[in-house]
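Researcher: Structure for this, please.
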Amino acid sequence: MKCFHPLPTLLLSLFYVAQAWADSAIKPNILMILVDDLKPALGCYGDPLARTPYMDRLAASGMRFEMAYCNQSVCAPSRNHLMLGSRSTSLGIYGLGRHFRDAWPEAQTMPQFFRSHGWTAESFGKVLHTGHGNHDDALSWSRPPYMDKVVEYLLPQSTEGGQLTREEAYFSNQQLDRIGSLPKGYAWEVAEVSDESYADGRIARKVIHRLEAHRQGVDSPFFIMAGFMRPHLPFTPPKKYWDMHDPDRFTLVQDQHSPEWAPSVAGKRGGEIVNYAPLTLGQLDEATIQRQLLHGYYASVSYADAQIGKVLESLDRLELDTHTIVVLWGDHGWHLGDHGIWTKHTNYEQANRIPIIFRVPGVTRANSSTHQLAETVDLFPTLAELAGLPRPAGHQPIDGISLLSVLKDPSSRVRDHAYHCYPRGKRMGRAIRTERYRLVEWKVPGESDAAAVYELYDYLQDPEETRNLAKVRPTALASLRQILARHPEAAARR
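Model: Predicted structure, token format:
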């Protein structure tokens, strides 16, 4: 990245940028960086194993949200939340294969909203979830989106000699009627290739070309959403990113059991991860396999970080940084063996806590952070207010709250909890997270509260969620149930 201006000059320039935005003299560019399956496994969040210099540098130039949460820990719903500002429990969409326009045909997405106010909205890589029968949304974009592969292999031995694998089929909407008969691709691949041999390198190049075109004379401000695939499975970063990490440094989770007294509906075993070779439920208990998965996850995060760094360096090189809002967002967290779980799909902390980083010239202070509880749905109204636009009021319910006051002052508070959910069979797990506690209510929507089963975790005294305290902390349980009662019953599946 380029060198910083001397402090007085920089502060003066940022003052004029912020004042111009406030007077609507100019419209800021917006660059949203989306990273699939990214938990806060970043150096800027204190992870000692992370090798993420570019995302760390972005955080050092803006504000880091320490307590940010997705609204459901699975790809398609989480991306609906981002695009619509609406939670699953408002939309009634909880799965991968249901397109939001089937249920809400008149909904206005975030890029669609900005298009209506004069921005050029473009999509690169994975923004909405495509696959599992789902597809993109043409109404959101000024130009056709650039799509690339989510599941991708280069070595024949990773795919039983180059066959179509079941996860490749899922994510490319091929042969969905015979998924079970397709071979499994490997959960990891180590190939000595260039960055652009895999999708994330190509996505970065496409975004950079777009930034260059804008710098050469495009008049309208841009609203770019750049979606990077890794660290989503399979773990396929080029070899040099595997080499950045010493596998002997990875410490396996010692207690890999469900929390004591937790209801069985709260946990999971297997799922997505055993769709990859050579993994079975039994092998997931093996230390060698766990260490390989940890290595693959962190190497994949480093690969994504390097591609994001290329984009951010280009933004600076082209002198677009002083009038571009940058937001980095992970769509949900990821279990790395805690509670014996791998991947996501739960209401636990590791599946729901996400990174959110804002860099807003003239608004955010460098290297600032906040413990304000934030949700994915908050990004839509926040960006609208930052751009001087009215609060979104689409046909869909807008559940988010603007975080602008927090961006200006990290000690400001606009909500006292975050809300998320996860369904399991007929039961819905609705959850709230305060600074200290998480409450989860499991019941069939519409049933009496008397039929509900609860989980209660105290992160001040038990950050690893080793024991469900719902039956031994009646006062805390009652108080948190009152907060949960502010939220309506979960909408039926649409």
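Researcher: Any notable elements?
Model: The chain has one domain: 7-415. The domain at 7-415 is CATH 3.40.720.10 (Alkaline Phosphatase, subunit A).
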